[in-house]
Prior knowledge:
The structure holds 2 protein chains of 2 kinds.
Chain A: H1 2-17, H2 27-50, H3 57-84, H4 92-101, H5 108-113, H6 158-161, H7 174-199, E1 202-203, E2 215-216, H8 224-229, H9 233-244, H10 249-252, H11 256-262, H12 269-272, H13 279-287
Antiparallel strand pairs in A: 1-2
Chain B: H1 2-5, E1 15-28, E2 33-44, E3 51-54, E4 60-66, E5 69-70, E6 73-75, H2 92-105, E7 115-118, H3 126-129, E8 133-142, E9 148-151, E10 165-168, E11 188-198, E12 202-205, E13 208-214, E14 220-232, E15 238-241, E16 244-247, E17 254-258, H4 263-269, H5 273-284, E18 293-298, E19 305-308, E20 311-315, H6 327-343, H7 353-395, H8 429-450, H9 452-471, H10 486-497, H11 502-508, E21 515-524, E22 529-536, E23 548-556, E24 559-567, E25 573-577, E26 590-591, E27 597-598, E28 611-616, E29 624-628, H12 632-641, H13 645-655, H14 661-672, H15 678-694, H16 706-713, H17 730-743, H18 755-767, H19 778-790, H20 810-828, H21 835-849, H22 858-864, H23 870-887, H24 890-902, H25 906-918, H26 933-946, H27 951-965, H28 978-989, H29 991-1006, H30 1016-1022, H31 1028-1036, H32 1039-1048, H33 1059-1064, H34 1070-1080, H35 1087-1105, H36 1114-1122, H37 1129-1142, H38 1148-1166, H39 1182-1193
Parallel strand pairs in B: 1-11, 17-18, 18-20, 21-29
Antiparallel strand pairs in B: 1-2, 2-8, 3-7, 4-5, 4-8, 6-7, 9-10, 10-15, 11-14, 12-15, 13-14, 16-17, 19-20, 21-22, 22-25, 23-24, 23-28, 26-27
Helix pairs in contact in B: 2-34, 5-6, 6-7, 7-8, 8-9, 9-10, 12-13, 12-14, 13-15, 14-15, 15-17, 17-19, 18-19, 19-21, 20-21, 21-23, 22-23, 23-24, 23-25, 24-25, 25-27, 26-27, 29-31, 29-32, 29-36, 29-37, 30-31, 30-36, 31-34, 32-34, 32-37, 34-37, 38-39
Amino acid sequence: MADPAVASGGSLxxxxxxSGSKAASSPAENYHLARRRxxxxxxxxxxxxxxxxxxxxxxVETLTEMMQSYITEIGRCAKAYCEHTxxxxxxxxxxxxxxxxxxxxxxxxxxYAKRSQRMVITAPPVxxxxxxxxxxxxxxxxxxPPHIPGHFPEFPDPHTYIKxxxxxxxxxxxxxxxxxxxxxxxxxxxxxTRFMAKTGETQSLFKDDITAFPLIAARPSAIPxxxxxxxxxxxxxxxxxTDSSEQDDQTDSENTxxxxxxxxxxADKENSMLPPSGVVPSTKASEDNVIxxxxxxxxxxxxxxxxx
Amino acid sequence: xxxxxxxxxxxxxxxxxxxxxxxxxNINFQRKSVIGYVELxxxxxxxxxxxxxxxxKQCRIYRVRVNELEAPFIYNxxxxxxxxxxxxxxxxxxxxSAYTAAVSAVDPDAGHGELVIKVPSELWxxxxxxxxxxxxxxxxLDQPKGGLHFVxxxxxxxxxxxxxxxxxxxxxxxxxxxxPCVDSYSELCTWKLEFTVxxxxxxxxxxxxxxxxxxxxxxxxxxxxxxxIPTAAPNISLAVGPFEILVxxxxxxVTHFCLPQxxxxxxxxxxxxxxxxxxxxxxLTCRYPYSCFKTVFVDEAYVQVSSYASMSIFxxxxxxxxxxxxxTPQTRRCLAQALAQQFFDCSKSQADExxxxxxxxxxxxxxxxxxxxxxxxxxxxxxxxxxxxxxELKMGGVLLHPTFSGGKxxxxxxxxxxxxxxxxxxxxxxxxxxxxxKAHLVMRLIENRISMEFMLQVFNKxxxxxxxxxxxxxxxxxxxxxxxSTHAFLKSISNVSGKDIGPLIKxxxxxxxxxxxxxSFAFNRKRNVLELEIRQDYTSSGTQKYVxxxxxxxxxxxGSFNHTLQIxxxxxxHDIPCHSKSRRNKKKKIPLMNGEEVDMDLSAMDADxxxxxxxxxPDMSILRKVEFEQADFMWQYQxxxxxxxxxxxxxxxxxxxxPTPASRLALTDILEQEQCFYKVRMQACFCLSRIANAxxxxxxxxxxxxxxxxxxxxxxxxxxxxxxxxxxxxxxxFLQKTMPVAMALLRDxxxxxxxxxxxxxxxxxxxxxxxxxxxxxxxxxADLIEALTNSLTPAISINNxxxxxxxxxxxxxxxxxxxxxxxxxxxxxxxxxxxxxxSCLRAIRQLQKNGHIPSDxxxxxxxxxxxxxxxxxxxxxEALVDYTRVERSAVELQWLLIMVQNDPTHYVRHKILGxxxxxxxxxxxxxxxxCNEALVDQLWKLMNSGTSHDxxxxxxxxxxxxxxxxLTRPSCLPLPELGLVLNLKEKKAVLNPTIKPELAVGxxxxxxxSIGIHGVGMSYTVDEEPDPISLGVCGVGQxxxxxxxxxxxxxxxxxxPGQVLQQQDDDGRGGRYKIRFNTMEDExxxxxxVHDSQAFIHHHLNLLERPSTPGKEPPSVEQSMLSMPAxxxxxxxxxxxxxxxxxxxxxxxxxxxxxxxxxxxxxxxxxxxxxxxxxESKDKEKERERDNSHAYSNSxxxxxxxxxxxxSD
Lengths: 308, 1209
């Protein structure tokens, strides 16, 4: 599962920034490379126009880069101006203002455009602008409600904010489910205990082969009753689950066995330790203030005269 | 006979205690020490009270002051070392009598005590006006081995963070272990208790917490308790620790305490306590006697429940969360038990204790009936009855109300026991449990006789009498009315009910033993009469003859009829007319006892007889065992249709003898019947598996219970998979737990567990799924492991090859894999009370025992270590005990015995000895290589001196010794031939030194001017110089030797035994004569051992007990003793002799006791030993003789008559 995710993330990235490092493979990259090639041709033409016979590749590259930046900046600014005036498509005047803003003398533009020695470049090949990849679109995207203008961005895929429906056909055969859950749990437990046994001290039941049935060595603890009496976190968690999760037992029956072991609900231990019969403690808490119990009374300060 | 006379209660003491202050200034958890003082306010009841005897053990006493005047005192504890150590005596009779004597010698109920304080002569005159005396005693305890238990976990942090705590504990009256007091249930006084503890700690004690005050440095605080209700010292307790405090939400006067982090469990476990309170108060129509109640939950508790005045100390292991099913009823029972004991807690004498235990057990039973239902109650009664019957038939009778007084009677009330029942401290624990069990059963019998209503009225009367008495604050003489006695109890019964229960009391209370009936019947068709024959066995041990009414219930076709028969001397046969004619095929419902009418399939029954089933004594109104013979179909009818659970259970156990398809069907039907009591169904499981095994060749269909289990607990669609756990229905939960365990006991023709049963159990484990369950499945899983264990059968071994992994049986491999996984998972996710580890350990032991895996104790040893949960330790120790027996391993036995001596947890020590008794490595009747002299010595040492800090443990050690060696000298010991030679040698060698110690003692005792000498008591033991004096004074030392020698040698003036002492010494020196007495036994002491043993004694006394050790200039004291003029010698020796022989019976009424007792003992020995000729002397010499006979009975060479004629009159 992980690999495709990484790949798609990468391709998204490439789509935005046009990184050339990768061999062109996807249509989106082809599109961008074609544009850039046109730019390079333009730069070379300009150089020739200025009288250069040849140019180093790096120079051409740098100039292309500068050119691209310049054009991009014009586009960006023009868009900003247009949006500033609450429009969605830039007009000529937006571009003009942009150029002025960038310190370009607009009046020289017609003259420059009509100069005699300019070279005519063939139009770049018509390539279709790339379509946004649909790889991750899952489920039905919500359409805008009527009060949201259509030009506003679309809703993201529902899985990003509602849920991820899996499209695998759920295993409905009860026997298989149980079998699978049991095996999975057993495997996990065995792997875990084997691991613990391998990494720690062990005891063995056999003298000839001490690895046969390794038992994790018994280790005395300073306060043995705590672990023996307090419910383990797993048990508490299961308890909570049984309280709340009665409805969707179908879906999680496959993967919870794994989850249970790995999940760590340690954070809210304080709360979860309370027994589910929360009635008594709560009434008690509210009454605590009025209870007159000698053990709750404040400890008195010693009298000065008293000698101990 | 007590109850016949006593109108007013006569105190055995020459004073009345009215008030006691206990102040503990400092509790040091690091060093495990305690410092404090007590102040007793006493009223002398005689003129010229010059000696005060108090109880105190292991306390180090610094000073004693009486009314501000320094008072000399003597401290002597004869129970420290029961028999003189050098003695070669090794027979238990001898030990038991010596031990009883030692305990009697300090028995507060006889007015004795370990601590004898001499009232300064300035105060003597006060006695005339009977003015108040205030006795102030400063004491400390250092690493107490009994009385107080420190739990100090070895982790980082302050004591409070570590959860360190300390609490008082003991077996019966054991308060003397932690402060000087009158340690008797019959001496009541009011109390003021002060405890200064660390500011982070809480001190919980008896009575009302008046205030809590910081000390000046604000680092500590003092808890001030006042107990205005007169209370006996044994009911005083203390618990100090960083407890979490929970005020009961329903009753604000009740406060619960638990160790840090356990508060949620405490909240849950205590949520129903108020119901128990309400129940008791309602039935007794009496308020709870104290104004507050506290429950404290501590780790390493001595017993699960111990009840004290206004507080109870519980084991912390009783706490549980809401997820736990099995522990819940157990915890509730414990709470109910503790509360029941709160209402009645003091008795006049040991002999009246049965009333206390009986009443509290009885009202506890009423609570069970109300909470858990009538079925559970009757089941419990049957269980208890079976228990007591089994015990008495096996071990001999349990006597509720022993009478020891009455001068000339020679009989020991319980000659069959290897210990004395005169003192609680000599009682074996098992006996004591049975005693309590019998007491409440007898109470129930009384209830049967006088009705419950009257019974409760009696209790109410007793309680209101007590509360009236206790409210009379300043009239301490009234307080004795608070003491419960057999007499008062019986009188109250006769007043309230007007019924005479004398015969009942005589039968069950004044006599031990139970009744054993055999019943059979024949139906006389002609007369339409049931001829019932009831025979009794009253000759075997533990049985008695019963004469009186007995109820018989006969279920006939026309209904159920009760008949009351009279059991008389000679009539065995009883004719009971039947009400119904036999009839066939008449479809008519059959009325049952409870009025219900049912259809029955009558085809199984005898066509000629209208009898369905017969029950003898159905109400269990006799303490009896009934073996009744009736046909199998009658048992089957009884099982199916009798509604009483007791009848059903009886039927089930009877059906085991009838492995027929009909029995199988009856059992299966019961199993399936949801209305049936679940414990009956559980029992049916096991019976069914036994029947199936007996029918193995003809059994048809799947293994027993398998289809039933599948139907009840497996999925409909896939019958091989168990449903996900849902334990909401407890009845089926218990059944689900039990069935696999019982199924695993099935065997096929090869006597192996059937393959499909094993696979079935393995599948249960595999598919076990607890995720949707609101209850924990730890007990269920533990039972599944137990099922695996039950399925094991002995491995087929070919010429004893070593067990290796490779030749492991395939099935066993599967089992072992499960066990390994369970055990390992438990390390990561421990289950409640580690039940799974416990089951796994048992399984592993079983695998070893059956030869599947190599037998090896090392795993168990590591689990038995301190630091594991106690249940796990016990399971591991059980395996070790078993290993020791099977492998006859001396190493493991040593290991266990060392643990008995050293383990920090008293309960574990107790358990080890208990398990060794139950599963002994060898017994007195079998030979074993383990049985050797060293072991005898070791065990002897253990019970003689190694367990002096814990009565219960000492009795356990005695039990073990009895189990291993019996009453007489262990057979593995060499004949003590050398005794005589050595004695002769000794006679010559040690004449002088042996006189000296006597002198020293005498000096101490008899010079009243010895204010400065009050340290003498200690000097005995502190003394390091192995000289005869110190030895002699050790409380176990030589004086008797000297004495004896004198007696033997014509030189010595033959003392007039008894008289002198009695005249001179009327205020008693219980403390001292004990010494003498004990030492008396050592006639056969040999010089060779003396010096070594001196060192040993010093070592022991100093290290183990430090009985009394102010250690103020011991040398000088010794000096003074030595330098005393020699003139008083004769009188001292006389006195000593006489005291020894009198065995401390200064007060005339005690006098009788002792004589009586000694005679009894003597009688006992007479038929045990061959040297009867030595027993002919007069009363006064009895005891001496007895010792003598012990000493020499085993030594064929001991022709020498130690007791020369001069002595024996």
